[in-house]
């Protein structure tokens, strides 16, 4: 087994543990490369089926190609595709691009708040109707108690301290100092009512591993990661007002791998194009304690 | 496709004996940090009127930096020409012991840090016990803060004899005792001119000297059954 086989096996093991333990479980799909790898792993874990609904939090400031790609793949792979949003903040224009909130507050409202209320079922969820390809209000409002997330430990300081199975309390808060122990492959999946568990199958993967795996498995990835001829590409995807492309002429996966291994990005952090991290004093801790992934 | 070997190493020991500093220094001296990371931590320390510490590279949480301690285990990714490592930085406080155990249960080898000046403390022993119970066979003791005892060979040797005796009781045979000063970089990535009497490897050389566990397929056969399910949608009758 090479290192990718081992990472794959461990992630699939975690996905199957999660599916067995939680009745109401969902997987967050940000449309980015990491959660798309996670989706690919789920298809492998369950022999081509994805028995877990995919949830996307739509801030309506996502790069438009992301939404198109999401819906195309949802149809092709027959996914239970759900999105949620903070319709109130959007209607009242309480956002950073509208000039009515700073970056952190905007993230908290459009992402963290929307996520919290979508997971709990308090706000509307919209599910894709595969007959029409359109989204309709989901009649299922049951709370998700298990949430699978594609964060990696190498991305940022607070993510380096996550467990594979990590509890969040009723308020969505993360008690970093009081996480349950995890021995070998034994995961604590039994928690108090009202809490939910975040499951992190990709914790041990690095950015480079993700790209090597995408290349090996030929996973379809949104073209935003590649240079379209203007010498720019995205290294990390988010909302367009706060995510900036990097100067790069990598046009395909193998050129990205080369760039990460020996080229100009070998020593530059992946999220350096994400403005909200800088507003949080160089990390994501404040946002993440409040429910950001 | 590159088929590099990967290995997990945990770093344990009593609080304030310098675990996070060892890793921080190792990352800095081998050029493993992202560009600008060292400068941004230095800038943070300057703004907050605090002395610079390599440990801040790892103790990323605001509570950790404010209190100057490690609260939860962190994974750091590090590579040498030989293989890729995940170095697991475990907390040394008694109240975070379960976080230390979580980190240690994932490791193939352990670096146990002891402060040369303070000597063997409660958690030096407790962590030794736990490493033994978890079945980690490869243990190296790092005798840290040698600069505070003038790089004295006598101090180093007294720790070898005292701690070696304890470790023997818990069935650990340390591969090595390395005299280091993590803060100043002695014997971390480069041999120190201050310990000419020491002929063993540096921490970096020691890492590559550890033996990785056998491939799963070389071990006795195990087949975990996680669950049984059947998906019949779309006419699938597998």
Automatic annotation (TrEMBL), chain A:
The species this protein was found in: Acetivibrio mesophilus
The protein, known as: Sulfate adenylyltransferase subunit 2
Keyword Phosphoprotein part of the UniProt annotation: no
Biased composition (Basic and acidic residues): 272-281
Stretches the record annotates as Disordered: 272-293
GO MF annotation: an example: ATP binding
An individual GO BP term: sulfate assimilation
Family: Belongs to the PAPS reductase family. CysD subfamily.
């Amino acid at each position: 087994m090479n290192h990718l086989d081992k990472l794959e096996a461990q992630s699939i093991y975690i996905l199957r543990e999660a599916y067995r333990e939680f009745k109401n479980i969902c997987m967050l799909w940000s449309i980015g490369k990491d959660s798309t790898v996670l989706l690919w792993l789920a298809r492998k874990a369950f022999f081509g089926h994805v028995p877990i609904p995919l949830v996307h939090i739509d801030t309506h400031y996502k790069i438009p190609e992301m939404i198109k790609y999401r819906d195309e793949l949802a149809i092709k792979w027959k996914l239970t595709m759900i999105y949620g949003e903070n319709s109130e903040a959007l209607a009242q224009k309480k956002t950073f691009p509208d000039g009515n909130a700073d970056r952190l507050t905007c993230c908290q409202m459009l992402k963290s708040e929307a996520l919290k209320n979508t997971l709990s079922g308090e706000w509307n969820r919209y599910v894709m109707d595969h007959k029409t390809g359109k989204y309709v209000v989901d009649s299922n409002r049951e709370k998700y108690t298990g949430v699978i997330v594609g964060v990696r430990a190498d991305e940022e300081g607070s993510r380096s301290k996550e467990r594979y199975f990590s509890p969040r309390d009723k308020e969505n808060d993360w008690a970093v100092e009081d996480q349950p122990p995890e021995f070998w492959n034994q995961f604590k999946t039994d928690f108090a009512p009202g809490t939910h568990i975040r499951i992190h199958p990709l914790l041990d993967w690095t950015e480079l591993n993700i790209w090597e795996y995408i290349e090996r498995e030929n996973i379809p990835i949104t073209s935003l990661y590649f240079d379209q001829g203007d010498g720019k590409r995205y290294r990390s995807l988010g909302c367009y007002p706060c995510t900036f492309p990097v100067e790069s002429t990598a046009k395909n996966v193998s050129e990205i791998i080369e760039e990460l291994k020996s080229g100009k990005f070998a020593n530059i952090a992946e999220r350096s194009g994400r403005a909200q991290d800088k507003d949080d004093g160089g990390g994501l801790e404040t946002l993440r304690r409040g429910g950001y992934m | 496709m590159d088929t590099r070997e990967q290995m997990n190493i945990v770093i344990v020991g009593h609080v304030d004996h310098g675990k996070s500093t060892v890793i921080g220094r190792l990352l800095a001296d081998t050029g493993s940090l992202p560009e600008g990371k060292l400068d941004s931590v230095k800038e943070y320390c300057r703004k907050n009127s605090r002395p610079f510490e390599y440990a801040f590279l790892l103790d990323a949480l605001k509570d950790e930096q404010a209190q100057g301690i490690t609260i939860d285990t962190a994974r750091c990714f590090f590579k040498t020409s030989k293989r890729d490592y995940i170095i697991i930085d475990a907390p040394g406080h008694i109240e975070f012991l379960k976080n230390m155990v979580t980190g240690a249960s994932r490791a193939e080898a352990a670096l146990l840090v002891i402060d040369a000046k303070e000597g063997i403390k409660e958690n030096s022993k407790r962590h030794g016990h736990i490493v033994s119970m978890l079945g980690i066979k490869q243990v190296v003791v790092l005798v840290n803060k040698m600069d505070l005892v003038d790089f004295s060979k006598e101090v180093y040797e007294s720790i070898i004899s005292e701690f070696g005796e304890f470790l023997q009781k818990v069935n650990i045979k340390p591969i090595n005792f390395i005299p280091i000063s993590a803060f100043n970089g002695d014997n971390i990535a480069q041999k120190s001119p201050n310990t000419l009497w020491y002929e063993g490897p540096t921490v970096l050389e020691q890492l590559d000297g550890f033996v990785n566990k056998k491939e799963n397929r070389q071990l006795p056969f195990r087949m975990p059954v996680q669950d049984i399910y059947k998906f019949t949608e779309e006419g699938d009758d597998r």
